[in-house]
Specification:
With about 110 residues, this protein is mostly helical. About 80% of the residues lie in helices and about 0% in strands. It contains five helices and no strands. The protein has helices at about 1-20, 30-40, 40-60, 65-90, 95-105.
Length: about 110
Amino acid sequence: MGSIISSIAIALRQAANSIGNQANHELSPFFKRIAYKKGRVAAITATARKLAVIIWNMLTKEEPYKKAQVIDKAKKTKAAGLRQVQRRLVALDLSQDELIRLFAKTSLSVG
C-alpha cells in the first residue's frame, strides 16, 4: 500500500512541476504565487496537494472539475494586487511627471 501512495505522490508532484513549467495552465498563477513566496519546491508540493484535493472531490463527491472557479480565483487575486498597487501609489502622492519618469525607467508605459 505504501508504494502505491508513494507512486501517486510522485505522479502528483511531477504533474505539479509540469504545471509550473506551463504559462497558460489555469493553476499556473497559484503555482507562481507560492513559488515567489516560498520557493519552487514548496510550490510543487502545494500544487500537488491542490491536484490531490481536486481529484479526491471528483472521485468521492462526483463533482465535475470547476475550471471556471479556478480562473475566477486567479482574476480576483490579480485584481486585489492591482488595488494594492493603486493604494500604494496614492499614498506616495506622486505628481504626474514623477509617475511618467518612474514608469519610463521600467518596461511599463503610461498613457
